[in-house]
Amino acid sequence: MAIVKIFRQRIFIFSIFFVGIYFGYYWRFTLTTDTKNLLAEQRYTNVGTSVKHCQPKTNIFFMKTHKTAGTTVQNVLLRYANTHELVVGLPATADPRFNYPSGEFFNRTFVRKSEKPINMLCHHMRFHAKEVKAILPDDTFYVTIIREAGSLFESMFDYFHYNCKAFARTPLKSWAIDEFLSQPNR
User: Fold this and answer.
1) Among 43, 45, 49, 186, which residue carries the largest CB count within 10 Å?
2) Residue 28 lies in a domain
3) What is the pLDDT at residue 136?
4) Is residue 131 in a domain?
């Protein structure tokens, strides 16, 4: 089955990933101080140019998307904002999705009023560039996560199975996605 093949490929990729983490962790502690300093110096120097410096961003827009590890990234960003005393734009209502489920595009009125300028937005929304730019500073860094379409569909099929009428027409079994794809208009 196609799903079993995909599952095996993912297990292989994760195995390679974790082996890489293990050896990276191991080598980090076995390098001499001189080698570590040399590697650090090379990392920050381009050939024929001066040393580059990375500056932290304080104004960030994260376009949160479904089933792309967006909640994990959002959690990291919220902790970063908390640590650095940044102002996060929060919804004016109790719903943390800026009216996303209603189908409305983002509007600046969806954000709770703040005495200080807003530094960060990182919740689900239907993006409207003009409205987002109206409440964030000009130097805002915009970022999102894009996932490979096939694995995204497979994940969404399982996650939204009973909340989506089209998906719910097939029983949630290991072969359900194959059945759905063979007759999507059923």
Assistant:
1) 45
2) no
3) 96
4) yes
Reported as a single tens digit per residue, the pLDDT across 129-143 is: 999 999 999 999 999
Rounded to an integer, what distance in angstroms lies between the CA atom of residue 26 and that of residue 6?
Answer: 30
Vertex 72 angle, CA 69 and 78, to 5°: 140
Q: How far is CA 160 from CA 55, 156, 157, 165, 166, in A?
A: 39, 6, 6, 9, 10
Residue 11 located in a structural domain: no
In a domain, 87, yes or no: yes
Q: Classify residue 147 as exposed, middle or buried by CB count within 10 Å of its CB (0-12, 13-18, 19+).
A: middle
pTM: 0.65
Q: For 149-185, how does the pLDDT look when each residue is reduced to its tens digit (9 = 90+)?
A: 888 888 888 888 888 888 888 887 777 888 888 877 7
| Residues in contact with 109: Cβ distance below 8 Å, sequence separation at least 6, in sequence order | 92
CA dist., res. 107 & res. 140, Å (int): 18
pLDDT for 133 equals 95
Give the domain range for residue 115. 60-144
Report the candidate in 70, 181, 46, 53 with the shortest Cα–Cα distance to residue 124: 70
Q: Does residue 144 contact residue 62 with C-beta atoms inside 8 Å?
A: yes
Placement of tokens 């994760």 in the chain: 14
Tokens of 134: 């109206």
